[in-house]
Amino acid sequence: MEGDTFSGMDGKVVQNFQKSFVQVQNILDQNRLLINEINQNHESKIPDNLSRNVGLIRELNNNIRRVVDLYSDLSTSFSKSMDASSEGDSSGAFKSDGKAGAFKRHRPGS
After folding, report:
1. How far is CA 53 from CA 3, 17, 33, in A?
2. Which of 4, 27, 54, 109 is the most buried (most CB within 10 A)?
3. CA quadruple 95, 96, 101, 107: dihedral positive or negative?
4. Are 60 and 38 in contact (CB under 8 A)?
5. Among candidates 75, 72, 70, which has minimal Cα distance to 24?
6. Distance between CA 68 and CA 74 in Å, rounded?
7. Entry pTM
8. Mean local confidence (pLDDT), 59-65
9. Alpha-carbon distance 31 to 68, whole Å?
């Protein structure tokens, strides 16, 4: 199944994608636990627990930044791999301009 999703892509690129997705999933799982603990502390209204939430929320924010960075890196890697795979393609199909989600049409002679 995974082979179908990434067919035609370099094995190392696929490995990097999979590694990044695993990292993202691990961070999201950790965030779920942090959010549960933050909610429990908030509901308890115990001053020490509420103070602890400050650190937990900072950790949550840092984790979210890490996820954004990982997705940004994935987007860049994907764009580069698509550029590399389309360099040999002279069909005039779409060619990535290196920006996530943005493509420009490649016109022969330009």
Report:
1. 43, 33, 13
2. 27
3. negative
4. yes
5. 70
6. 10
7. 0.69
8. 98
9. 13
